[in-house]
Task: structure prediction
Amino acid sequence: MTALLELDRVSRVFHAGEQTVTALDAIDLVIESGEFVAIVGASGSGKSTLMNILGCLDQPSSGDYRVDGRSIAGLTADELAALRREHFGFIFQRYHLLATMSAADNVAMPAVYAGLDPVLRRKRSIALLQRLGLGDRLDHRPNQLSGGQQQRVSIARALMNGGRIILADEPTGALDSKSGETVLEILKELHRDGHTVILVTHDMEVAGHADRIIEIRDGLVVSDRRSEATAASAGAALVAQGQPVTALAGFQRRLREAFPMALRSMAAHQVRTFLTMLGIIIGIAAVVAVVGLGEGTRQKVLAQISELGASTLAIYPGRDWGDERADSITTLVVADAKALAAQTYVDSVTPELSTSSKIRAGRLSLTANVNGVGKDYFRVNGLTLVRGAAFSEQSISERRQEAVIDDRTAATLFPNGRSPLGQVVMIGRVPVVVIGVVARRSSAGGDRNLQIYLPYTGVGGRLLGAATSLAGLTVRIADNVDTALAERAVTGLMTRRHGTKDFFVFNSDQLRRTIESTARTMTLLISSVAVISLIVGGIGVMNIMLVSVTERTREIGLRMAVGARRLDIMLQFLIEAVTICIAGSMLGVGLALGIATAFGGRTSDFPMIISLDAILAACTVALLIGVVFGFLPARNASRLDPVDALSRE
Result:
């Protein structure tokens, strides 16, 4: 019959710098199923190393160790985890209970990695605790339990997956004598139930409770004696109940469990968690707000350009803006406007003159911009008439003393809701009658000044001394006509009429395209800076998670001891990193929306239009940051050696 545990010439050598320490030296040992064995020895004798090898927490440097006839030589970390999960239950001197979990959840943890159904897992956990006298302590956390109660929780955890082999490392070492006796009685009861119990202790009195005592000294077995004859009983140990699960179903269950575990860990370190996600919050808020600001500014500017006239060409004398000879060029005349209006690609044209003058209405005397315009001026420039009427053909041809004012001028000259229509306004010494009011342009260069519009014939004849040349022409291009083609056509026509190109054309679509391009460039630039802040936040997540791995090394060792695979450990920390980044991104989006609501309304100087695409893109980046920057800490955690991890302070 195959022995349950068998060591054949097993040695374990440790290297510390240039020194070599032999903890176990060619040990031969056989433990049969159903035995109650005590391994006893002084500190440093090698008994803990032997227990670690027996429990598949460590592997021999040489020799062969077989569990139920299966050699562990060459097994992967996950295969060793499977052996621990399926065969062993560990009882530690320091209990190794997770402070963030209740007694029932601590007990159930091994079954999480075994893929047991949550309902069955909970039932079995409760049943084990009730059996050990802790039925009224199910939801208590370790800090609410006495030492003896914590050790009983540890025993229940060892039995969760069946615990065919119970490895108890100094189980009474941290307990008072009464609690210690209780634990030893429980171990004896487990032995009677068919469990193989291996007790590691330095106390010969404690070892005396076992049926077989193996004494070890300096890495060698110096005695192996039985206190009384025992009949090995096989197969009587408690086994975990439940339906077999497929690998995929088991993985899905473990994945579902990893998320609440991550939340518990985050909740246990709230300040650290918040500081970790602060970089993500700021980065996400910056990205979303900057993109929203860029889009809001772009749309505001485009709306302002549209107010200047959809698809318009402005023609001015001179070679370009700032041409010193422009004032002396008199070739831009009304006949040019009539010639342009006759073209099929032109919707409408307006001549323009301008000056600044004192205006008076009643006792008010102010300075205003006086604009000489044609009858189509308001159509060309997209200005909306809100009261009264615009100029007629007769207004232009007869040089009528009529005026249209903008709503700001109307409110200034005629306060308290007085109607400006029919009122007389003095422009210098020339009286004019107000016949209409238009909505002001929010984007005009002189928007802060009062605006008053007169027929260009009246401005030229009455205010500018019978001027015959124009300050400019504005041409509205017909719908569905490409403004670039129209610009070339206008330039050709005007050049033929003048015999030379003594004018320049400003295309409003050029401004639109330039502003759009500039807005995109600036948004991209600032967004890049914001993304860099996100990456810096990701590095912060990685650093904190690396610190978290160091702080939680013993927890990692415990999870490995109860059967967690490397993938389970990696997922645990990776999900924590991703959860932090997702939570940070949600708070960041909330912060950005708050900023947009408080300061970025459409009427503000810095409008913000928060788009769903920007939010999704930012959150996707945060998710990727969680995966990328969480991978290294998660990988480091999964590669820890369970023995080293459990021994860390």
Remarks:
- The first helix runs from residue 47 to 54.
